[in-house]
């Protein structure tokens, strides 16, 4: 649940999809910044009671 002023948005979740080492190793972007942003989002959601869901593709 996220508090937007006077409005509560129910059924809210953070979906972290397929964060893989292959993308990190290719370094197409600032890896440290991306990982830091993901961690900050996860921490904020947990503090606010928002569910965090991880999805990872595997063969």
Helix and strand sequence: EEEHHE
Straight-line N-to-C gap: 33 Å
Provide the helix percentage: 40-55%
How would a textbook summarize the main sheet? 2 strands, antiparallel
Radius of gyration over C-alpha positions, nearest whole angstrom: 14 Å
- As for the number of domains, it is 1
Gross morphology: flat
Work out the number of β strands.
4
Give a brief rundown of this model.
This protein has 59 residues and is an alpha+beta fold. It has two helices and four strands; from the N terminus they run βββααβ. It has one domain.
Structure description:
This protein is an alpha+beta fold. It has one domain. 41% of the residues lie in helices and 27% in strands. It has two helices and four strands. The longest helix has 18 residues. The radius of gyration is 14 Å and the shape is flat. The N and C termini lie far apart (33 Å). The mean pLDDT is 78.
């Amino acid at each position: 649940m996220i508090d937007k002023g006077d409005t509560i948005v129910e059924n809210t979740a953070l979906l972290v999809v397929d964060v893989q080492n292959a993308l990190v190793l290719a370094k197409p972007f600032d890896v440290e910044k991306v990982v830091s942003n993901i961690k900050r989002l996860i921490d904020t959601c947990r503090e606010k009671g928002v569910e965090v869901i991880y999805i990872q593709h595997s063969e």
